[in-house]
Description:
With 456 residues, chain A is mainly alpha-helical. Chain A has helices at residues 2-24, 32-57, 64-79, 103-129, 135-151, 160-165, 182-194, 204-223, 228-239, 242-249, 255-275, 278-291, 298-314, 316-336, 348-351, 360-368, 376-390, 395-414, 418-422, 427-455; strands at residues 157-158, 172-173, 342-343, 346-347, 372-375. Chain B has a seven-stranded mixed beta sheet. In chain B, strands 1, 3, 4, 7, 10 and 12 form a six-stranded antiparallel beta sheet that branches. In chain B, strands 2, 5, 6, 8, 9 and 11 form a six-stranded antiparallel beta sheet that branches.
Amino acid sequence: MTALQLCIAVLITVAPAWVWLDRLVPANLPGRGFLLTGYSTVLGVLATTLVMRLLSLLGIPFSLYSIGAAGLLLALAGWFAPAHWRSPTSAGQVQALQQPMTRLQVLLITLCLALLAARLLTLGLEVGTRPVTSWDAKQHWTKQARVFFELRSVVPYVSLQEWLDLDGQGVFTNMHPDYPVATPLLQAWTAVAIGQWHESLVNLPWLLIWMAMGLVCYSQARLAGASAALAIGATYMLLSMPLLNVHVALAGYADPLMATCYLAAVAAFYNWSQGRQAWLLILALISAAGCMLIKNEGFYWFLSLLPGILLVLAGLRRGLLILAVIALALLCVLWLMPADTVVAGHSLAGADIRYRPQSWLPIYLSFLVHDNWHFLAYLVLAALLAAPLFFRATLPLAAVIVSALLLYLTLYLFTSNAAGAVRFTSLNRVALQLMPAAGFFSLVVLLHWGQRQECD
Amino acid sequence: MSRIRQSLVFFLLLIGIAGTARAQTWSADDFSVEMGTVVHQGAGLTLEPNEQGQVLLGIPGATIALSSGQRAHFTFLGPPPPKIYLIWRRSDSEQLFQLSFATHGNSRPTFDLATVADWRGQSESLQLGFRLEPGTSLTLVDVRLAAPGIRERVAEALHSWRAFRPWAPADINVLTGTLTFNEGPYPAQVFAFFILLLLLAYLAWQRSRARWTAVATIILCAWVALDALWQWRLWQQLGVTRAKYAGLGSSQKIQVSESNKVANLAMRATRAIEGPDPRVFIASQSDREGMLAAYYMAPHNTYWHRRGDELPENRFLRPGDYILAVNPSTILYDRSDGLLRLPPGDAINVIERFANNKGLLLEVAP
């Protein structure tokens, strides 16, 4: 019965998004099914949390029926949406490198699929067996989820002092009341679907998100022109990153969902930058906007797309000039802005801006020494060096990745969050949000090298 | 091709030679017995302790170079002593230095001297000490002082990379790929280095004929090799997880988890709490215990101030509020007077709902 309820929950989550995306995505694309499944999962998850917030606003308690009804309405609306909203089926798309598969490619595909299957089984059993374990899950995310589930509603969270001042009437409190609520709502939804709070099953969405990440990576790689072997190899490398696997096994943190959402945005952006198909830009912007529903830094990851979009629309030279002007303007704004102005949950006063060189060593260790990402960071570095020298078509994507990395470095080298670097607490968790996208960038650079060789 | 083969053979020979590090070895004939009795001398030196249970061996006439890169290797026949004492005097100091190591029943123990601050310079004398139960004996075959060779270091690195330990809380933040945080070499870095060498060799060999597919294949194969260590660890972890939690229901899993004591306290508190929408203040000096209590008290409306005062000021507490104190806690509860004393000198009337070894639940009285 529980398995059936979970399947229904997945259907309610994915199906409405699938219907709408089916209208958006052109019909004749390589890996279309994988693309639809991956993006429907990611965007469906976020849309479901929005539905839950709407239901709370309307005073309707969460249940499989209320959320299911809303999902059904959304699906029907997509089904009956005007025909001219559909993307033309003859829209051009990049052709995958059309060569017959060699024996080595077949071997590599088989190997990667077997390894992925083994990883899926291991992580699936681990997350399905162990109860809520991780610190932040118990301290914040899952605790909030439990409240939402038991009350069948989103309830407001305020700071400790506000809670005391309000006598706790109609409000709850925790250490981070300003955090977005998508992640706790995801666990609450799972509990609502099975009709009970289950310490292990509420973590199953993390496995779903992990699979969605793989589908997004594979489908966008195919769209970018990668062969099936290359795409599955890259997908395997992405999904096997140790720290990502730990976050699935010890589920409850928001970072894997953010990582998947940001990858979805960046990958769609890249393919839009190559073919200029509107549906890909829409996908990129929706996915990037979705990042803001997950964690406060999602706002900055959303902004990181803008330099890339600018380079595509204005051209490289003009775009770089405009970026330089915008960067100067931003510095002026930061200089003149009142220190207590809050942007995405942070203020200048709280950030305590000054140079913190003590963060360099942890950053170096985390990326180039420790096994958090195996050796993906080396590949990203090589790609960042190669892109401007040899593969200028990848520069818009490089601009996005560099923007995100610069924001990341600013966070740990110039703000009070440096403590999270020195103590190795948040440093890698925030990096986890970016690494899949950075890995996709490395794949793209390799792909361009391959395409150049095929042309020569 | 023949040139490559020659280079490979030479490289392997070099490793083989380098693998045997220079060492100083002392066998049974080399020791002078300063305490204890020799009962047999053959393949090893069999010794019985004196009346105080002591055995002391000296290495006479030896000036030994001490360095932090050395390791002390001991070989015993049969059961080893529980502890080994290393005693030395340096040429630049009158002081006698002593260090002890536990053998943990290992008849061929090895001890790393890297972290011993005084193990440096020249030693004028070196002694080995053992403590035994009267009537027992030990057989020492040899003692070797050597810096680990490449073979040994490689073996240690592989052991560290393959070693398994169950999930630790910090694993959600950082994974080094080694057994201990600060000790390398780290597998990701080593693999990256060898891939770089391989790719440079390939690019140098092929030059303009270098194929991107070959580069991609090398990278993928190296990743699979490195990832095999990680997959192995995940399988072992799965075994531990399933041994502990498989087949249990949701509440049973909590009972066998590390947080069961706090969870049980919270469940008992939940049963004892009455009234609609009560507020519950979690008071604890421990971050972990306070956090767990707040989690297991959900969906009650809880107040828990991490790294802050255990309780807010008196003016914020109302009749009907509950205070769940989780040990260790420093709240001043006067059971005889039914008072909870708050800084700066306030006191409120409380009713004790229950108390046990883990904590207690108080209700703020009217």
